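Entry:
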Amino acid sequence: MKAAVLGKPISHSLSPVLHNAAYSTLGLSHEYSAIEVSKEELGVFLAEHDSDWLGVSLTMPLKEVAFEFADSVDEVAKLSGSINTLVFREGIQAFNTDVIGIVDAVKEFNSEIISTGVIFGSGATARSALIALAQLGAARVNCVARNQTDVDKMIELANAISVELVRADLEDSDWMSADVVVNTTPVGVLDEVAREVFSPSGLLLDVVYNPWPTQLAASWAVTGGSIVSGLSMLLHQAGQQVLLMTGEPAPIPQMREALNSELLSRGLSTI
């Protein structure tokens, strides 16, 4: 059976390493690859898939356009407006595993009760982060973002999941004292902000993992804060995809070992 991660660009993806390690550990003969597919090409690709396929993982720019091709959509994907997994069973079933990826990555590093959070950014990953923070117990989340249309979507989502969300400027966001801070902005966007980090009290999850650490994460750690790489989120969301596609619980330790081996071969930091 086949599976793949789709997106554009896609050659840098670490997903094949994670999924193939899981298949090997589980004794499955499936094969997982990376295939470059644009938004315009997704419909054609899905129409041509056959019974040899388990499903696909989706990355940018496919997470929102995928809704028009799904026969069923799970509640988390509906709430977040973001799909990162399609399973070819009883039609095309759509899921969002980014949320559980964030939840499990945070829980791995922080078992304490979470009540406050800050999110940098307001796109699809930010919406997943908001749901994840709510599941972790956060009652109030401040959002630092510029795009008012996207922020309005975040506020609508927050109302639906009973979380107080406030758009805030950096200086008013309480980011140094929040229990969890999630950066969902692209690499380099917060490099200037990194210079303002001083004695943070909470945990930083930076979804950017190449390069790692980011300037924000490095500043956070140097001044006493705890950091989680986006690679931890990648690992745990992939684990949920393995479960959805194969029905088998993911072997997270072996997937982490394979990931770290690949990171070392690329000259990158491990998790």
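The chain has two domains: 2-97+238-265, 100-231.
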